[in-house]
Amino acid sequence: MAADHSFDLVSKVDRQEVDNAINQASKEVRQRFDFKDTDTTVAWSGENIEIESSTEERAKAALDVLESKLIKRGVSLKSVEPGEPRISGKRAHITCLLKHGISQENAKKVTKLIRDEGPKSVKTQIQGDEVRVTSKSLDDLQAVQALVKEADFDFAAQFTNYR
Question: Which of 14, 81, 85, 123 could join 97 via S-S bond, C-beta 3.0 to 4.6 A?
Answer without folding.
Answer: 81
